[in-house]
Write a structure and sequence with these properties.
about 140 residues, alpha+beta, 4-stranded mixed β-sheet, 4 helices
Length: about 140
């Protein structure tokens, strides 16, 4: 169930790096703030349409927080801010201008399949994590 406190992360469901990132967020989301959907899913496509994104470009993940959205390095840093442990300190990279942060983000994004691999189908959550994904 999604309520006002939840933030939504849209991610590339076939990307191994993206799936590992989702698992990392779930493991460090002690306040249960995040819900997830793949960009390829029907709900992911619905959000892409809502915010006027291209429906077939999965090179970024998107953070939706109410009526606002964030992409690329800004989305990643906004998520990091809410996590427990030392990862929350990554948020301070937000003070680096997005132009510079996004250069690194785009290099990783464009090469993620080659470096980390991909699956033929979208990630299927385990039974104990199913409630973290929206349909």
């Amino acid at each position: 169930m999604i309520n006002e406190k939840h933030k939504i992360v849209l991610f590339d469901g076939i990307c191994n790096f993206c799936n590992a990132s989702v698992n990392f967020i779930i493991d460090h989301d002690k306040n249960d703030l995040y819900k997830f959907a793949s960009l390829q899913s029907s709900i992911g496509q619905k959000y892409l349409k809502k915010f006027d994104f291209t429906l077939d470009d999965f090179d970024t993940f998107i953070l939706i927080d109410g009526d606002k959205f964030y992409t690329s390095s800004t989305a990643a840093l906004m998520v990091a801010k809410d996590l427990d442990g030392i990862s929350k300190y990554l948020y301070y990279f937000i003070f680096i201008p997005p132009l510079f942060r996004d250069i690194v983000y785009k290099i990783i994004s464009k090469n993620r399949y080659r470096i980390f691999g991909k699956n033929d189908t979208c990630h299927v959550p385990t039974k104990d994590r199913k409630n973290k994904f929206i349909k």
